[in-house]
Amino acid sequence: MRRNFNQATISRIALSVACVAAIAATPAYAEEVADIAAAAESAQTGGDSQSAGEAEQTGGLDVIVVTAQRREESLQDAAVAIDAISSEQLTRFNVESAKDLGRISPSLGVNPGGGPLTSLFIRGVGALTVNPLQDSGVAQNYDGVYLGRASSAAGLNFYDMARVEVLKGPQGTLYGRNATGGVVNYIPNAPKLGDTTGYVQAEYGNFDKFGIQGALNVPLGDIAALRVAGSHQQRDGFNDDGTSDLDATSVRAQLLVEPTDRISLRVGVDHTDIGGKGNTGALLGFFSNTPGSQTDFTPTGVDIDSGSTSAASNAFRVNTFQGPSFALLPPIRTEDVFQDLSYTGVNAEINFELDAGTITIIPAYREYSQDYAFVGPGFAPAPTQESGDQFSIEARFATDLDGPVNGVFGLFYFEEEVDFAANFYQVAVAPIQNWTNGGDSWAAFAQLTFDVTDEFRISVGGRYTEDSKYVRGDDFTFLTICPLEVQPFPGAPFTIPDFAGCQAQNYPALPPTTDPQAYVDGLIAGGFIPPNSTINDGFYPLINGSAGFIVDGGAGQGLTSNDSWKEPTYRVGLEYDLAPDSLLYATYERGYRAGGVELSAVGAGGGLSFDPEFIDAFTIGSKNRFLGDTLQINVEAFYWEYKGQQITYFSTIDDAPNFGTANGDSTIKGLDLDVLWAPTGTTKLGLKFQYLDATLDQLTLISDPATGRFGCENVGVVNGFQNFECGGTELLYSPEISLDLALEQVFELGDFDLTFFADASYRSKQQTDLSFTPQTVSDAYITANFQLTLEPTEANWSISAFVNNAFNERYLVNSNVGSSGAFYGEHNPRRQYGVRAKVEF
C-alpha cells in the first residue's frame, strides 16, 4: 500500500483540522426536531429517546429534517426525489447492513454478492462492482464522507443511526462523483451538549441470532460532549451448510467541541470487524457449452437453502456437472468459504458561522482490508485479498443572506489506492490477477437559489470534475490441458478438454491461491513439472506420464494502464409553492461517472480503458400535506436518458481480463407515489408505489465462441469473438411494479402503549444477472413483516416481538453464471422471528 493508517496519516488529518480550526463553524447537520416549530429553528440534537431527524407526533404526521441539499430543511420542503428512513424504521424493517437496504425504498435494488460485494441500484442504475477497477453507480456517503469502494459500506452496520437518506436520480452538482443513479447518505447520531443520555438494545431470534447495541452521550463541561456507541451481531447461517451467517462487531466514538456559539468541531472514529462464512448461494444448475444463446440448462434439484458446500451440491458437481471422469475435482468444504473483513475510518467536521453564512470543512481518511473466498464465478471457491485506503477533504460555504439569492459553493478532493489479488478458481483453470490501482479526483461546485417571488424559486448549479485512474500489475492464467480435446461446435477451435479416456487422477488440482509463484512451487513439489521450471516458462509439460501440460499466462506480467477525464455537470430547478404545504417542482440534472481502466495481456501495451457514462434526468413532482397535516401525498414523474452505461461482466475470452466493461445506452422512465395518512392520533397508514420502465436500448457483449452464454440475440462471430446484442432487455434490479404498504396502530392500555406494526412489499419480476437468461430472473413476490411493541407511557423501556418474511416467501436476489457453465444463485433469507428489548436513560 502507498499509505497506512499511521502517524503520518494522523498528522495529515490533524493538520487539516488545525488549519481551519481558527475559522471553524457550527454543526452542519440538524438531527432531530421536536415539532414543526423546532424544525423551523433547526435545533441540532443527538437524542436517544427518538430517532434523530424525526419529529415528535403532534396529532399529525412527523416532520423530518434532512441535509440532502447540503442545508437543513424539512423533507417536504426539499425539491428533490428523496426517501428518508429514521432509526426507528431501520429497526422495524430489520435493516442491519447495506445488504438489507432494499427493504426500505421501492426505488432501491440490492445485489448482496459474495463476501462484501454488495451492489446498489436505484431505478435500475448501478453496477455489479465485482472488482475495485469499477466505481459504483450509486454514491454512498458515511457522515458526509464519500466511500470510494462500494464494498466499504459493509463496514458500517446500522447502529445508533440518525437516519438514512436515499436520493433518487443523478446528483451531479452537490455530490458529483459517481452519483449517476443517486446517493445513499448514512448519518449517525452526533454528540449532544449538556446531556447524559444513552440506550442499550438487545435482540434474540431464530438461527441463534443474538445482537446487542448501545450508545452513551456524556457532557465534558459546558462546551464539549462525547458519544460512544457499539454493536455486536451474530447469527448461524441461513443455509444448511452454515454459510450466509453473521458475525460483526463495530465501535464508534465522536467528540463535539463548541467553544463559542459560532465555532464547532466534531471528530469521529469508527471500526468494524466482520467474520464468519459470508454470503453464498446454492449451485442451482449448469449450462452446457452450447453455441449462441445459452438454452441448454440442467437444474441440480438441490434445495435452495442447502448451500454451496453441501453434500448434494458436491455430488452434482462431480457426478453430473463434468462427469465421474473429472476426478481431480475435490469437494468444496465449508471451511473453504470464509471472510475476514476490517474497516477503519476517522473524520472531522469543522464549522464556522459568519454573518453571511457557514463554512464547513470535512477531512477524512478511511482504510480497509478484505480477505475472503466465496463460491460463484466458477465451480470452486474464489480466494480474494483486497486492501485499500482513501483520503478526502471537502470545503463548503453555504450563504445565509437576507436578499433573494443564496447558494452553496464548494471544493472537493479525493484520492485512493487499492491492492487487489483474486483467483476466480475453477480447479483446472486458475485465472489470477494481482494489481495495484488508484487515482484521484477534484471538483469545484456551486448551486444558487433565486427567490423570484415569495412562492417561486429558480435554482441553478454546476460542477467541474477532473478524474484520473491507473492500474499496474500482472495477469496470469494457469490451465490444466488434457491432450484429448474436442470442438464445442463445427468450426470452433479445439479448446475444450475432454477428460473421458484421460487419467484425470494424474492431473494436478491447482491450489486456491492468489500467488502465481505458489502454483509453480506446488507443481514442482508434487512432481508434475520439471524442477527447473520458472514462472516465465509459458507452459509446463507434465512429467508424470499423463501427456498433458499446463499453460501459464506469464506474458501478462508488468502490465499498466492509465487514463483521465474532465467533465462538467449541471442542474436547473424550478420550485413553486402552490400553498403553504404544497410544493410543485421540476428539475433537469446531468450526472457523470468517470471512465475506468482494466488490466489485460491483450495488446502491446497491455492497457485498456472504458469511457465515462452520463445521465440526463428530467423530473417533475409535487409534495403536499392536507387535512391539518394528517395526509401527505407526494408524486413524481421521471425520464432519464442514460448514455455510455458501464456494464462490467465476467469475460471468457482467452488472454482477456477476468472482467470486461462495455458501454451501452438505456432509457428509464416511470412514476413514484408516496402517501402517508394519520386518520387518528393512534393510527398511521403508508403506501409507496413505483412504476418503472428501464430498458437497454443498445448493448453488445462479446465472448469466446466456445464458452459464450448470454440470453441475448446471437449476432454471430466478429473478429473471432461471439457477439451478443442485448438491446431491448430490462436493466438489472428494475421491477416494473414496486409497492410497499404499512400500518401502525397504537392501543392505549392505561399506563402502557401497545403498538402493532405491519408492512407488506410487492415486486414484479426482475433480472439479476448480466447473462440475461430466464433462469436468472427473480420471479414476482410478496413479503410481509409484523412487529408488536409494549412500552410504558411514563418510562423509557420497551419490548418487542417481531417476525420478518412471515410467510416464508423466497425469491432470487443474486445469481452468477460462470464461464464453466455453473449457475449459482442466492435467495432472500428464510422467515426470521425473535424478541427485542430496549432501555433508554
Outline:
Helix content is about 5%, strand content about 50%. The chain is mainly beta.
**CATH level 1 class label:** Mainly Beta
Q: Averaging pLDDT over every residue, what do you get?
A: 83
Helix count equals 5
The beta-strand count equals: 47
Query: Using only CA atoms, what is the Rg?
Result: 27 Å
Taking the alpha carbons of the first and last residues, their distance comes to 44 Å
CATH architecture: Beta Barrel
Described by the principal axes of the CA atoms, the overall outline is: globular
Largest sheet: 22 strands, antiparallel, barrel
User: What proportion of the residues form beta strands (DSSP E)?
Assistant: over 45%
Oligomer: single chain
Count of the separate structural domains: 1
| CATH 4th-level superfamily | TonB-dependent receptor, beta-barrel domain
Can you walk through the features of this model?
The protein has about 850 residues and is mainly beta. The chain has a single domain, classed as Maltoporin, Chain A (Beta Barrel), CATH 2.40.170.20. The chain has a 22-stranded antiparallel β-barrel. Strands 3-9-10-7-8 form a five-stranded mixed beta sheet. The protein is globular, with a radius of gyration of 27 Å. The model is unreliable at about 1-60 and about 485-495 (pLDDT under 50).
